[in-house]
Amino acid sequence: MRTAIVFGAVNSPSAHATSVSSPPARSWVEGAEAALRKAGHRASAPRAAVLELIGSQDCVLSAREMADELRAAGKPVGVATVYRTLELLTELRLVQRLDVGGGSARYEPALPGGEHHHHHLVCDSCGRVTPFSDERLERAIHDLGERVDYRVGAHDVVLRGTCPACAHAHRS
User: Which pLDDT does position 21 carry in this prediction?
Assistant: First the structure.
């Protein structure tokens, strides 16, 4: 299960947690397929299965999680194929890679124009990754860019710490 959190001002109507919107799967998959063709890569059923999975995910998945989900769906795609596909998609900037520590990485679709833009909370205890959006954080990043006379083209924020479940388990 993946959880999404949106932070808002404490006294604002948007202060409660809401979902980060899911990416538009079909348009991302079609765009990725077109970019791969343009780069001279041929289509294959295993690569298409990986693209479909990435396009439909809510947030980041590891290569192993992708291979496991594909296998569970009856699509026998090996983990090596998933890794090769992710490497290619990363080179073409079609996916975003999130390093979660311990040499582990997770991936999600990179959407043009910042659609589905969000950041991540990573639990150092259990590895859980939680997406979040925060308008005040976005404004602060924009304001910082203006203050230091720097045009911020893109940014990623990863907050590391302890998730509520692990914090509760450590208190007990």
Answer: 52
